[in-house]
Amino acid sequence: MSVAPATALVTGGASGIGAACVRALREQGLLVGVIDLADGAEADAFMQVDVRDAAAVAAAVTEIEGLIGPIDCLVTTAGYYREGSITELSVADWQDMLAVHVGGTTAAFRAVLPGMTSRGHGAICAIGSELGLCGDPFAPHYAAAKGAIHALVKSVAPEVASANVRVNVIAPGPTDTPLLRDDPNFASYSSTLPLGRIIQPDEIAAAVCFVLLEDTTLTGQVVSPNGGAVM
Amino acid sequence: MSKLRGIDGRLVLISGAGQGIGRATAERLASEGARVLVNDINPETAQIVADRIGGTAVPFDVSDAAAVDLALTRIEAEHGVVTLLVANHAYMTMAPFVDHSEFDFERHLTVNLIGTALLMQRCLPGMVESGYGRIVAMTSEWGVIGWPNATAYAASKGGIIALTKSVARAYAAKGIAANLVAPGTTDTPQLDVDAIDAGLTHEEMVAVYAAESPLGRINRPEDMAATIAFLLSEPAVALVGQVISPNGGTTRL
Fold first, then answer.
1. What is the predicted ipTM?
2. Which of A198, B8, B59, B248 could form a disulfide with B215 if both were Cys (CB 3.0 to 4.6 A apart)?
3. Residues on chain B touching A157 (C-beta within 8 angstroms)
4. Is A82 exposed, middle or buried, given 0-12, 13-18 or 19+ CB atoms closer than 10 A?
5. Domains annotated on chain B, with CATH
6. CB of A6 less than 8 A from some CB of B
7. Would you say residue A2 has pLDDT above 80?
8. Known catalytic residues of A?
9. Does pTM surpass 0.90?
């Protein structure tokens, strides 16, 4: 039933939560490959890829598997946050937000799942969001994209469960990353959370490691290290 | 995985640890280096588990406020402050709702819900003084989604969710994380209650539940122990009032 995972792939692993996941997984002894739009990931294999390009994602996974071996664990963190009201956001704004989050996550799932199911083991952790649960009046396209990731995971999990592949979401609350520090409301987040402070990336990474590396029956679930933002 | 952060050397109290999920949790936490206090209403099973893992048996009735206070006073004098608490004990019977006696219904609430509240009330002041605490309360998949013939049990487990979320909100900023685990059907002695209600043997009940699970296997006590261990770890402070559901994918909320 349990095969100790040896490798992981992290999309968006060059910065923020992704980089914290890469560090944590390497500390657990895994070989970690990264795909990211930006250069500069500290990983065992790296490919500069735009996750909106599904063919490029598939090619990068093949390349990385050649370097570190078949992918046992996948973490999808690639994404971005941008504000905009429902009346102001353009069709292009919506399409790009969905292409990166839903398209990019789906592309990574499709690239690794056939190998995982044929080997009979694997674990996937998609990064969703607290905002995918409760919505975001400042970024409806972001909230909708993250909510779609949650629904995607709940749909894929039962499909691949019989092949002993588990699929879950980690849905962080406000986390201390470059993505958040650019937010004009950064300072006000802490006071809104029962925890009284924002989340640290290594706390998200610890949750990701639990979901991926502990041999449990956790699948199709949304786990929320969100400081109590949504419960 | 390598050892979890924040468990080694800490004092943990686990209620209902003489069997099932509690026992597996005691074993897991002992392997993580925790000093384990094994509570059960049955002194013999508590002692057997404590002997096995090198822990301490602390048998008492969690639904008796005076007994809880006496036990914790003794524990604090002999072992120190309990900074990790696992409220795992449970009472369960099954019956059609309209036939369920008031007495037995109330017993579910007294043992499961009030017992969990009493443990939290008695342990929280020490955690506050330490500026550190982790609480895991065991609810149930049925406490989340409800279940026919398990109305009293489900109601008590649903109450534990609201209780723990409220405690989590009140104490998160003090460094105390309170969360819940909602197991799916798990292969423990309690499964006999399901089996009797369904007119099946324990093994037949396991097979039925395994077939209903997308993962194709029944949940093991160890699945829950691993989840509890994570929620007791240091970085799990980011989780406040959350319900984690290792259930093989049967319920996906």
1. 0.96
2. B248
3. 214, 249, 252
4. middle
5. 11-184+221-244 (3.40.50.720), 185-218 (no CATH)
6. no
7. no
8. 142
9. yes
